C-alpha cells in the first residue's frame, strides 16, 4: 500500500511475544484486531466482533439493558491515543420486555490510532471489554496485540467499508433523507417529552437518543409514522441525572435509515412558561 506523507523504511518489530495475539475467542464470538493504512502519524485499525448465530453485542449506548463496550490501549508501544468509531446499530428485544441497541452477525469497530513518533516502531495492545448475549448476557474481555509495520495492514478495504457505516454528522434540518427536521419539548405531560420529527427513505428507520454523558439514561424513542416518509419520535425526559436541569443539554440523535445513518446534536429546548 502507498503511504501518505511518511516513509518508514525498515520499520518492523520483532515477532509478537507469546502472550500477544490479534485473534481471540469467547463463548458466542471471536474478536480480531486488524490494521489498514498508515498515513503520517495515523494508522487505520479495527476490532471485528464475529458473533455466533443468535448472539448479539451492544452499541456505545446499550438501551434498556446491556453493557457498552470499552477499550484500553495501556501497554501499547509508541501509541499516543486510540479513537473508536461506532457503526450504525439496530434495536432488538432484550428478552425481558425491553429493548437493547447493538449488533448481530458481525460488527467491525474502526479505530484511529495516533502514533507518538511516526519514525519509531509501534505495537498496538487493546484490552476490549464488552458483553455477548444469547438467552443470557455474559461479560467478556479480550486482550489483543498487533505490530504496526511500514506497509500497514492488509485490511484497509474492510476498515474503510466499516467506517462508511458510521453515522455521518449532519446539522438539524439539513439534507433530505435521512434528516432530523426538528426537536421540540412537550410540557403538557410529566415527565416532559422531547418530540423529534425526521424524514427517512425507509419505513423501518429508527432513532436513538443519548444525553451529554454516561450519567444520562434516556429511554428508547417511540415512533409514529407520518405521511411522505416523515416520522415522529417521542422521548420522555426520564433518566436525567438527579438535580440536573435538562434545558440546554446537548442530545445526540442517531437516525438509522436503511444503509444510511446520520448523527445530529441538538440542545434541549428551554420550555416556554
Describe the protein in words.
With 273 residues, the chain is an all-beta fold. It folds into 2 domains: 23-163, Sandwich (Immunoglobulin-like); 168-267, Immunoglobulin-like (Sandwich). It has 1 helix and 19 strands. It has one helix spanning 156-163; strands at residues 23-26, 29-39, 42-51, 56-63, 70-72, 79-84, 90-93, 99-104, 106-115, 122-133, 137-148, 168-169, 179-186, 193-199, 206-210, 222-225, 230-236, 250-257, 260-267. A 5-stranded antiparallel β-sheet has the order 1-2-3-9-6. Strand 7 (90-93) and strand 8 form a beta hairpin. The longest helix has 8 residues, at 156-163. The radius of gyration is 21 Å and the shape is globular. The N and C termini lie far apart (61 Å). The relative contact order is 0.17. The model is unreliable at 1-19 (pLDDT under 50).
The CATH architecture classification of the largest domain is Sandwich
Q: What Rg is obtained from the alpha carbons, in whole angstroms?
A: 21 Å
Total count of strands = 19
Residue runs with pLDDT of under 50 for 5 or more positions: 1-19
Q: What coarse outline follows from CA principal-axis ratios? A: globular
End-to-end gap:
61 Å
Q: How do the SSEs run, as a string of H and E?
A: EEEEEEEEEEEHEEEEEEEE
CATH superfamily of the largest domain: Thiol:disulfide interchange protein DsbD, N-terminal domain
Average pLDDT: 89
Supply the number of structural domains.
2
Strand content: over 45%
Oligomer: single chain
Amino acid at each position: 500500500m502507498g503511504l501518505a506523507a511518511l516513509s518508514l523504511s525498515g520499520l518492523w518489530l520483532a515477532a509478537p511475544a507469546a502472550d500477544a495475539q490479534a485473534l481471540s475467542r469467547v463463548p458466542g464470538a471471536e474478536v480480531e484486531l486488524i490494521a489498514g493504512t498508515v498515513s503520517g502519524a495515523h494508522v487505520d485499525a479495527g476490532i471485528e466482533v464475529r458473533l455466533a448465530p443468535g448472539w448479539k453485542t451492544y452499541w456505545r449506548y446499550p438501551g434498556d439493558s446491556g453493557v457498552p463496550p470499552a477499550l484500553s490501549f495501556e501497554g501499547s508501544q509508541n501509541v499516543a491515543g486510540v479513537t473508536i468509531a461506532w457503526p450504525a446499530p439496530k434495536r432488538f428485544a432484550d428478552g425481558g420486555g425491553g429493548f437493547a441497541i447493538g449488533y448481530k452477525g458481525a460488527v467491525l469497530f474502526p479505530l484511529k490510532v495516533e502514533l507518538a513518533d511516526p519514525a519509531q516502531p509501534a505495537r498496538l495492545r487493546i484490552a476490549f471489554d464488552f458483553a455477548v448475549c444469547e438467552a443470557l448476557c455474559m461479560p467478556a474481555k479480550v486482550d489483543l496485540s498487533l505490530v504496526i509495520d511500514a506497509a500497514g495492514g492488509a485490511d484497509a478495504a474492510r476498515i474503510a467499508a466499516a467506517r462508511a457505516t458510521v453515522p455521518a454528522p449532519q446539522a438539524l434540518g439539513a439534507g433530505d433523507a435521512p434528516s432530523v427536521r426538528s426537536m421540540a419539548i412537550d410540557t403538557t405531560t410529566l415527565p416532559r417529552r422531547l418530540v423529534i420529527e425526521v424524514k427517512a427513505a425507509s419505513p423501518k428507520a429508527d432513532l436513538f437518543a443519548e444525553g451529554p454523558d454516561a450519567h444520562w439514561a434516556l429511554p428508547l424513542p417511540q415512533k409514529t409514522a407520518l405521511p411522505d416518509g416523515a416520522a415522529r419520535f417521542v422521548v420522555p425526559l426520564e433518566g436525567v441525572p438527579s438535580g440536573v436541569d435538562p434545558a440546554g443539554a446537548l442530545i445526540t440523535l442517531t437516525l438509522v435509515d436503511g444503509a444510511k445513518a446520520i448523527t445530529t446534536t441538538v440542545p434541549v429546548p428551554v420550555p416556554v412558561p
